[in-house]
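> Could you send the Protein YjdM prediction when you get a chance?

Sure thing. Input:
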Amino acid sequence: MSHLPNCPKCNSEYTYENGALLICPECGHEWSVEEDNEGHDLNKVIKDANGNVLNDGDTVTVIKDLKVKGSSSVLKIGTKVKNIRLVDGDHDIDCKIDGFGAMKLKSEFVKKV
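Output:
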């Protein structure tokens, strides 16, 4: 018998498989085998504009001028962004840019340095 992971919500050891999902009978939580404990898809790979795989902590460069929403300023082409963090969602890069502050970027507008 294969060992299934404990429930990520209540840490119950009594999980069982139902098709492609794992289910916890104690709290009722359902999750996919491909997800980690925070619910992130382990098979999702985020790539930059050139197709290079991005990782947390990478340094990237902006490849086109980007309008900053809610501001009249523009994030210029060639701006270097250090120590990125990958997140789920449409804007999949969380970062802090000198002169702008905290910001979310789309991976299609950056290239890995």
